[in-house]
Amino acid sequence: MTIDTRALGFGSGERAVYAANPWASRGRLFPEDGSLTRSEFQRDRDRIVHTTAFRRLKHKTQVFISPDGDHYRTRLTHTIEVAQIARALARALKLDEDLAEGVALVHDFGHTPFGHTGEDALDEMLKPYGGFDHNAQSLRIVTKLERRYADFDGLNLTWESLEGLVKHNGPLLSATGEGTRGPVPQPIRDYCELHDLELASYASLEAQVAAIADDIAYNTHDIDDGLRSGLLTFEMLDDVPFLAKLMAEVRARYPHLEPSRFAHEIMRRQITHMVEDVIGVAQRNLDKVDPQSAADVRSAGHVIATFSGEMAETDRCIKKLLFSRIYRHPDIMRIRAGASQIVSDLFGAYMNDPSLMRSHYWVNHIAGLGETARARHVGDYLAGMTDTFAIKAHGELFDQTPDLR
Fold first, then answer.
1. Residue 74 phi/psi, 5° resolution?
2. Is the distance from CB of 89 to CB of 279 less than 8 angstroms?
3. CB-side exposure of 380: number of CA atoms within 13 Å?
4. In 19-74, which ranges are continuous DSSP H helix?
5. What's the pLDDT score for residue 2?
6. Long-range contacts of 169-178 (CB under 8 A, 24+ apart)
7. Model-wide pTM > 0.70
8. H helices of 290-359, where?
9. How far apart are CA 139 and CA 145, in angstroms?
């Protein structure tokens, strides 16, 4: 992928005309005085980092359950890696780095314990009550469930940060008002009644780079963790031509490299190629669209920061490899079944006796709520759990807890 290095914003501090402008933000749901020392997007990022939800990510599964080893990624380390890549892309494209970083840091707040397994189990339990969506749960956390400030619930983030959180993967509504990926989750619809996030438009370019940074990070680091676990081998990587070429380059330059260094050399090259590919594509798309404001990016009608066709095919091949060799591996599936049972068991127990949710701030009021409202509170409580807390809670309530090793 050819990129125009003359157009890159390396360390210049210059912001392009199409970048989000923190000094012209659409504001917060609850108006606040500005800061003398930080931009509005800096304040958002700082609020995100200081949340309980951010700290909980350190004990939430990425792929491998934490008891498997200290060196595997968790949701927290994955999130930090996404933020680093998002910030690098934002700087190269002369965007607002703080907004891109903030969207990256908050994008996984709504994930349940045990990764996508926990999300699937909780969604199944909540289907009669509207289902569960981790993106909508992230919005609930930052607009309602974090209870830190005297003047409002949530973090009172700017419109741009909330828009990026909700729409970083694209519009949720078509031009005709139909859901682009099924019905829009109720928590998102409810919030938009108060603070319209314009669900039919694309998000800012800062949110777009956060979204593609997520793909780059987990495509790379799930391979790294797979190699560490033994579920992947270097021979298996030959199934992806892009990875086979990278391995050949490393072997040619370092013929006697130890496996751990060999793996790292592959991963760092993979990230570099993917990042440079996105920059080159974004530059060409920006030349075509010629946006003169962040609003022009939102109305472009397509994603600007994305992979080239060739890299998109590589992305598909890598995902296919990860699904077949890791995500659907019999050992992982056995652990997933146990994790699913833990979430399902806890949901049933808390629905039957809400007083068991001793640390939930609504515990004294839930018994008087209707079934749907009670289920949503149980969903909030379960989604907020770490892996370790969920396992411990299950052990306290049930005679036998699945072994997730």
1. -110, 180
2. yes
3. 22
4. 40-49, 52-56
5. 72
6. 169/135, 169/211, 170/202, 170/203, 170/303, 171/199, 171/200, 171/201, 171/202, 172/199, 172/200, 173/199, 173/200, 174/200, 175/200
7. yes
8. 294-298, 309-322, 330-352
9. 9
- Length of the chain, in residues: 405
Separation between Cα atoms, residue 29 and residue 190, nearest integer Å: 13
Of the candidates 200, 197, 132, the one whose C-alpha atom is nearest the C-alpha of residue 158 is 197
- Rounded distance, CA 7 to CA 93, Å? 8
Residue 92, class by beta-carbon neighbours within 10 Å (0-12 exposed, 13-18 middle, 19+ buried)? buried
Question: Hey, is 173 helix, strand or coil?
Answer: strand
Residues 22, 96 contacting (CB under 8 angstroms):
yes
Contact by Cβ (8 Å): 41, 101 = no
Q: How many angstroms separate the CA atoms of 53 and 109, rounded?
A: 6
Q: Which residue has the tokens 């909330």?
A: 162
Bridge partner list, 360: none
Intra-chain end-to-end CA distance of the chain, in Å: 42
- Domains of the chain (ranges; CATH) run 38-327 (1.10.3210.10), 331-397 (no CATH)
CA angle 118, 165, 49 (to 5 degrees): 80
Q: Which two tokens stand for residue 154?
A: 């949530």
Q: Over its length of 405 residues, how does the chain's per-residue pLDDT go in tens digits?
A: 677 766 666 555 689 999 999 999 999 999 999 999 999 999 999 999 999 999 999 988 776 655 455 677 889 999 999 999 999 999 999 999 999 999 999 999 999 999 889 999 999 999 999 999 999 999 999 999 999 999 999 999 999 999 999 999 999 999 888 999 889 999 999 999 999 999 999 999 999 999 999 999 999 999 999 998 899 999 999 999 999 999 999 999 999 999 999 999 999 999 999 999 999 999 999 999 999 999 999 999 999 999 999 999 999 999 999 999 988 889 888 989 999 999 999 999 999 998 899 876 666 667 678 899 999 999 999 999 999 999 999 999 999 999 887
Query: How far is Cα 259 from Cα 207, in angstroms, rounded to an integer?
Result: 36
How far apart are alpha carbons 210 and 80 in whole angstroms?
Answer: 11
C-alpha span between 40 and 38 (Å, rounded):
7
